[in-house]
Structures are given as C-alpha cells and as structure tokens.
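Revision sheet: structure tokens.
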Amino acid sequence: MSSYNQEQSDALDMVRRYVAGLGEAEKADLVGSLDDYRLFRQSVEDFLQTHFGSVCHQACYQSRLSACCSREGIVTFFADVVINALLSTTREIDRLAKALQGPGGVSTKCVYLGRNGCLWRLKPVVCALFLCDRAESEVFREQPALRRQWEAFREHKKRFTWPDRPVLFDDLEAIFIAEGYTSPLMYLHNSPGLIRVKQKAKKIDVA
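Predicted:
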C-alpha cells in the first residue's frame, strides 16, 4: 500500500470508528451541522451538471482521460472524510476501504475512481471545485457571466475551509483532536500556512 493510500485508509478507519460509536442524537447533531455546506455543494453540482455535464462527459469520461482524477493527485481534507462518512452507508464505506487496500503504483487513475465514477457519496471539495483548462475555455469563452459565477463558488468555499473565522472544516478536525485522534489530513491544524491564517485572524479580533 502506498503512503498516500495508507494515510487515506487510516483517516477513514478512525472516522468510521468514531461515527460508529455515536448515539443517534449525537450523529444527528453532526449531520445537522453540515446543512449549509450541503446546500453549497448542491448548488455547485447543479451548476456543473447544467453547464459542464456534456463537455466533461465527452472530454474525460468517454475518453477516460480524467485529468482531475490522476493517481494520488487529489487533496482530501480530514473533514472531507468525516462528512462523507456521516452521509454514506456502511456498504459505501466498505467500498472505499476496499479500494484503498488495492496495490499501489499500478494504475495512473485516482484510487477512488470506480467503473461508474467517483466512489465517494460526497466527493472531496477540491475535486468538486476543479475544472480543467479545456472545459473552462470551452464554456466560459461563450458565456463570461458563468466564469463570474464559478469564481463566486470558489470564494464561497472559503466559508467552510479557510480558517480566518470559525469554519466547518476546522471545527470537525477539532472534534476528533479532542478525542485523541490525529491524522496528516488534518491540514487546518497541521499546515503552517493555515495555522498562520488562524493566528492572524485572532490578532485582528483582539485588536
């Protein structure tokens, strides 16, 4: 198993164990905390299906190029794993775990790319907000207003991932850290750059 797969597998395993130990009310509260994020993700998905569905299907799915799904090319936040686990069935989580156990270095494709597309119920936010240059050029060239809308989505993403204020992705990591869990995927608590963002925000609040 590659180091990438191992990190992903370890994160999935610890999240799975934690979620399995939650009571119904506790789990419902956690799922409820995702409401705004899920609405945002649905808006992004609707936008992509409407304006990029046919373009991306022809460029990547039919040709199997999938530039956005290269091996070990995606960044998954720990919160991505938590959110997906909360929304997935046991069978869907089993499928992810099985994919991660496969031999590393054989395929050039993302380990999560199955026969019918991404194996995640709610794919990582980095994947959801990715468009290749070819797709952007083809669609935005004819409809520049759509580019502005897309940039607005990318900016909106920061309300959940950029810790210059209390954000969902930071809060979810903190829950697990408080329970003694640790993972390299906890970027909002491990990344020097993101830690500096939080420190700077605190100084501004104090001032």
